[in-house]
From TrEMBL:
SUPFAM superfamilies cross-referenced by the UniProt entry: Metallo-hydrolase/oxidoreductase
Gene3D superfamilies noted in UniProt: Ribonuclease Z/Hydroxyacylglutathione hydrolase-like
Residues annotated as signal peptide: none
Name by which UniProt lists this protein: MBL fold metallo-hydrolase
Domain Metallo-beta-lactamase: start-end pairs: 47-226
InterPro entries: Metallo-B-lactamas, RibonucZ/Hydroxyglut_hydro
Length: 255
């Protein structure tokens, strides 16, 4: 299987509109981050998208992706769902609804934000989705076993997802001891890390991530959902503890 980072930035993206800091004005492509999303390609070449934010169209074009077989949603914040309307060309091309897997609460929000996709009498150009409610129990789809990981993002529950010995978690500020059991001794763990300093009410910062790395002991840990406050990629990546890496848009991981 393969995971590709389509975006590794926060809800504002990087560069941030109007910001003139050294990260936002950097010419290094690794400092330019779309909103967080990944594409998982299964052993049978099926495409599993995790989250569909406002940069979805550009992400698909830049990465020359032309198919999404299913979409997993972590939670309902706009930077993770508001690009769903841009799935229309894929839906028209395949002639099939795109299945969305999420918590019930998230599915309900999708219906509210895209009511035209679920109307009894649809506009001819509207997108079409099949909603599938999940919790934090394992399920199998596209011949792939997926284990949701329940995390807390400020005051709401969000989901991470585990495939084989890789787990992807974004928008988390707390993981229970029960859910941590699913994350121990992985080959690859991907965690959100919004900045190096200053505690955040909804996201991990670097000291939190280092503590989890030491506790969970993955072989490799990649940071995502990174803001411009973290610093320049090429400088900061070299200063991280061994085994921890800054992800960047376009990075691919085979697992």
């Amino acid at each position: 299987m393969k995971l590709k980072f389509l975006g590794t930035g926060t809800s504002q993206g990087v560069p941030v509109i109007g910001c003139t800091c050294e990260v936002c004005t950097s010419s290094n492509p690794k400092d330019q981050r779309f909103r967080s999303s990944v594409m998982v390609t299964t052993d049978e070449y099926k495409k599993i998208l995790i989250d569909c934010g406002p940069d979805f169209r550009q992400q698909m074009l830049i990465n020359k992706e032309d198919r999404v077989d299913i979409t997993l949603l972590t939670h309902e914040h706009n930077d993770h769902v508001i690009g769903l309307d841009d799935m229309r060309p894929l839906i028209f091309k395949s002639g099939k609804n795109i299945p969305l897997y999420s918590l019930f609460r998230v599915a309900d929000e999708v219906k509210k934000r895209f009511p035209y996709a679920f109307a009894d009498e649809k506009y001819p150009g509207a997108p079409a989705f099949d909603l599938h409610e999940i919790g934090n129990e394992k399920f199998t789809v596209l011949d792939t076993e997926i284990s949701p990981i329940e995390v807390i993002h400020y005051k709401i529950t969000a989901l991470g997802y585990k495939f084989k010995n890789l787990a992807y978690i974004t928008d988390a500020g707390f993981i229970s001891e029960t859910e941590k059991e699913k994350l121990k001794n992985l080959d690859v763990l991907i965690l959100n890390c919004i900045r190096k300093f200053d505690p955040h009410p909804a996201h991990f910062i670097l000291p939190d991530v280092i503590k989890l790395f030491e506790e969970l002991k993955p072989k490799k840990l990649f940071l995502t959902h990174i803001s411009h406050h973290f610093g320049l990629h090429d400088i900061e990546d070299k200063q991280l503890p061994a085994g921890i890496h800054l992800a960047y848009d376009g990075l691919e991981i085979n697992f």
